[in-house]
Amino acid sequence: MHFFQSSSNTYTKLIDAYTKNGDFKSGRALHAHLIINGLARSSQITIKLIAFYTRCKQIPHARNLFDKIPHTNKRVWIAAIGSYARHGYYQEAMGVFVEMQRERFQHDRIVLPSVLKACGHLSDGMTGAKLHGIVLRNGFEWDAFVGCALIDMYSKCGTVDKAKNVFDGMVEKDLVALNAMVSGYVQNGVVKEAFGLVEDMKLYGLKPDIVTWNTLISGFSQANDGEMVGEVFKILDDNGIKPDVVSWTSIISGLVKNFHNMDAFKTFREMLKAGISPSSATISGLLPASANIADLRRGKEIHGYSMVMGFEEDLYVRSALIDMYAKCGSISEAMSLFKKMSERNTVTWNSMIFGYANHGYCKEAVQLFDQMVREEERKLDHLTFTAALTACSHAGMVNLGESLFDLMKDKYDIIPRLEHYACMVDLLGRAGKVSEAYGFVQRMPIEPDLFVWGALLGACKQHGCVDLAEIAAKELYKLEPESAGSSALLLNLYANSSKWGEAIKMKKMMKKRKLKSFPSRSWIEVV
């Protein structure tokens, strides 16, 4: 690639274009050219290059550029923090801000929104509250950007009441602030309060826009409140506002989340009849409906549609396709798509590892987990370890499972969740270490749920441990008093162990409590 001598302004426009498109190869070549002609030392060029490398996920390059610039230039600090926060590198943004404070720069209202955004995404409410104090001491609360950033930070940290205090204290409440507050309410599951706020602000002349209404539609859809979704649609119609692709996508996502899968397909058809073209987000939101009910035929139809519409290469669509094929048992198809991906996110990796583990390809699941650790360790999350532990459990790899559980806590600082404990109980129980599994349950720092006790009861049945089965069944009954599952399992265990007296007692108890065990059913669709 050849570059002619141009003005600094022309080069910054070129860098902006490469940043927008994520064109790492061309941007890197331009950077080399700028080093040769000496313009790379310009702070203006450097700021643009930091943004470019951050956009292209080349954080070491961005950091290297930042370190070479004299740290007396405040604009460079602001640019670095802004770039990191804008592209999701929140920990890095906080790190640079801490360094900036050490250099004793005065606090700047321009940099605070970026830092507050990082605090919100990291759920660092303590640092966010300290920054709020800085805002008040410096009189920045009048700034609309700072105010909206505070609302967003408090909302993401789960303290929506503090977000509302900030909103109430704003001298001039504009539409951006209203949308931030509505979004905050929705994020925290208090959608009716958001709706009430919108209605209240209309009385003060603040007119909501489609973004406001779409946030409410999303909130009510996720909350499984179809009546209020209909109410919002009616308001849109009364005001002559046409629902857009985001409106329809929000409804579809909510239906899928609440397992109204057939209604999701129906809504998708209604959307097309209304003349609204779906987006990649619509497709990635609809595909889990096929996965939920293992409907491979519909999943393939959506896959074909996504290819026609040009969505197949989208990262989120491809990840949803992998998840759908894996859950429908088409592991080879899922792996074929996985291998073709040039970029993968956490969901992509997790879906493929889960797919392998749940269909008996446990060795492949562990190998893929190891590959993820080598290639994209930063993307590991709690679900990645759940998938790997599931594979270990199904394959009886006790030592590996125990080491992964410790690795998750000690190296990656992931606090074990109930699903991790259930996997470990299942792992030990399947391997015949039922007493160890029970001891593991007793040492849990959180209260075991029905999945943990269910895993123990299943292990007791498999290995004929009647005494521990009675304990597990009793705990399950406390959690699910109306379910006959644990009682029926214990009844069968008594019968298999020739403990006929106990079996008769259990039968009478089930009859007295009117517990009925229903015959199992399964279904399969032949494609």
UniProtKB/TrEMBL annotation:
Alphabetical list of NCBIfam families matching this protein: PPR
Organism superkingdom: Eukaryota
Name of the molecule in the record: Pentatricopeptide repeat-containing protein
Database matches in Gene3D superfamilies: Tetratricopeptide repeat domain (1.25.40.10)
Residue windows of the PPR repeats: 7-41, 73-107, 174-208, 209-243, 244-278, 314-344, 345-379
Alphabetical list of Pfam families matching this protein: E_motif, PPR, PPR_2
Signal peptide coordinates: none
Repeat recorded as keyword: yes
Alphabetical UniProt keywords: Repeat
Keyword Transmembrane: no
